[in-house]
Design goal:
The structure is a single chain. Helix 3 packs across helix 4 and helix 4 packs parallel to helix 5. This protein is an alpha/beta fold. Helices cover about 30% and strands about 25% of the residues. It has a single domain, classed as P-loop containing nucleotide triphosphate hydrolases (Rossmann fold, 3-Layer(aba) Sandwich), CATH 3.40.50.300. The chain is globular and about 50 Å long. Strands 5-6-7-3-8-9 form a 6-stranded mixed β-sheet, with helices on both faces. It has a 3-stranded antiparallel β-sheet with strand order 2-1-4, covered by helices on one side.
């Protein structure tokens, strides 16, 4: 498959000027606690995600990383505390783990991509021809021009993840939540999508991404949040966060 390149012009308009970045919160956590299946998944999370920030959420399996993203959107009920969004809900894009997405639904690649227009559209207007042409253009730049009419279930893992990024681009989201976006994706696609994320950051969009590759986090993400058993170990400059020890005192300090 031909590999396209999503240039800055395809990624939507910028959402913040330079002077506005990192000054206002996109998300605020207020003593957020989540419990399910008889256990506490998140313990008293408090802090702010500034608008325009690029943050990796790191930690071992079961640390609560995916739960934090879902709780941010209210998809996982809170036991106490809250997570407050300071961007319009229709300007929030959430890319769940691909293993959690059913791909046997009978929808084409093009139609799936154009779902990105719906949060900002009026239900009676539908999608216009101009939006359809824009979607085709972005799909072409993503290297998906030859598969636009195929069912999404026939895409490879890398193609499907590119499609999800295209849908987020068409949504023109201000806050983008990514849950393990590079799982089961080839190296070339991973590098391509990392560049897309960097463009989003340059435009002033806020990105929160659950990641496992420390090298990727160090190279691409200036801010990181480390979780351990549902508690914050460290949150701030990536270099400091990745070297922060997971000790009992550090975990209980959250």
């Amino acid at each position: 498959m031909a590999r396209g390149t999503l240039g800055a012009g395809s990624l939507g308009r910028g959402v913040l000027g330079l002077g506005q970045r990192m000054s206002l919160p996109a998300v605020e956590f207020h003593n957020l606690t989540v419990r399910y299946h008889g256990r506490t998944a998140l313990h008293h999370i408090t802090g702010q995600v500034p608008k325009g920030s690029l943050t990796a959420i790191v930690g071992a399996n079961g640390a609560g990383k995916s739960t934090l993203l879902r709780a941010t959107l209210g998809l996982t009920p809170w036991a106490s505390g809250s997570a407050s969004l300071h961007v319009p809900r229709q300007r929030v894009a959430y890319l769940a783990q691909t293993s959690d997405i059913q791909r046997d639904f009978p929808i084409s690649v093009l139609d799936c991509a154009m779902l990105g227009f719906w949060p900002s559209s009026r239900w009676w207007q539908g999608v216009g021809n101009g939006q359809r042409q824009h979607a085709l253009h972005v799909l072409e730049q993503a290297g998906l021009a030859e598969v636009v009419h195929l069912p999404v279930g026939e895409l490879s893992g890398g193609q499907f993840q590119r499609l999800l990024f295209v849908r987020a681009i068409l949504q023109d989201a201000e806050l983008i939540l990514l849950d393990e976006p590079f799982a089961a994706v080839d190296t070339e696609t991973t590098q391509h999508l990392l560049q897309v994320i960097q463009h989003w950051h340059q435009q002033g969009r806020t990105v929160l991404a659950v990641l496992h590759d420390a090298g990727q986090v160090r190279q691409w993400f200036p801010t990181a949040l480390k979780l351990h058993e549902g508690r914050v170990v460290a949150w701030g400059n990536t270099a400091s966060v990745l070297t922060a020890p997971i000790t009992q005192s550090a975990a209980l300090a959250a």
